[in-house]
Amino acid sequence: MPLVLTLDKSLSLLEAVVAHRDGIGTRALAQELDLNVATVHNIARTFCHRGYLRQDSGTKTFFPGMRLMLLGRQPSYLQSLAVSASPIIEKVAKKLNESVMLASIDHGHILNLKYVPSRQALRVHEADDISDHSYCTAVGKVLLASLSKPELEAYLRKTPLQHFTPHTLSTPEALKEELRKIAIQGYGETRDEAAEGVSAIAVPVRDPWNVIVAGIGASAPTVRLQDADHFETTLRELREAAALVEKQWTENRQPEGKGKGKTAPKAKAPSKTPAPQQAAA
Known about the structure:
- By secondary structure, the chain is of the alpha+beta class.
- The chain has helices spanning 5-19, 26-33, 37-50, 66-72, 76-96, 138-145, 149-158, 172-185, 222-225, 228-251; strands spanning 53-55, 62-64, 99-106, 109-116, 188-191, 198-206, 212-221.
- The protein has two domains: 5-71, Arc Repressor Mutant, subunit A, CATH 1.10.10.10; 76-278, Beta-Lactamase (2-Layer Sandwich).
- The strands form two sheets. It has a five-stranded antiparallel beta sheet with strand order 4-3-7-6-5.
- Strand 5 and strand 6 (198-206) form a beta hairpin.
- It is globular and about 65 Å long.
């Protein structure tokens, strides 16, 4: 099938702008896309006119516009992620025999999209909305580490950092240092931070532009997760699961074993958060 070249170039430009979270200018776009500067300028300005991009008046760099963000946050995107990931989350939870959760951040809320509890007697319960205490959960830390500086500051302004245990990171400085560490090492962990005796590990899930859109976390009693071999096994399995979720979601394939035409379950909406002692991933 022949391509509409102008449309193809326009979409490539849009994707390139989204991939550069700190913005990108006309000449840098032209070089990256191997296009004429004038062509890039005209396409980008058209997107700005329609609201899909915006251009900083000082630096002249382009950023995603509100219309593009609203389009990208179309309500079904979380539903699509939850459906694609569901069999993968169930499989890794069964393999690890620990509680496993898929969570995403949406309009400031960190939502539990899929949760599979451990089959063991000693296990951890998870809330639907972990926003209020996400800073002391592994998956919450992974998602917070993905925020821009203004987004993180906004979160800290509206979220009191409560001191649940002696291990809770309850100051902005300590939390920011932890989030910088997570961004470098590629995973987050907690040890007795939300509740004594509960630990967790989490890894990010990225979209095709390498932007973190979700996290997969496994929580367990500290007595089990403090074992070095168990920790490494859990981290490896979570990373493999995250890679499968990324592939499954971006390829938009029907999950294995699921028939066509089945209605996708709705992503969970924010609800009142139970006591933090019950949540740790």
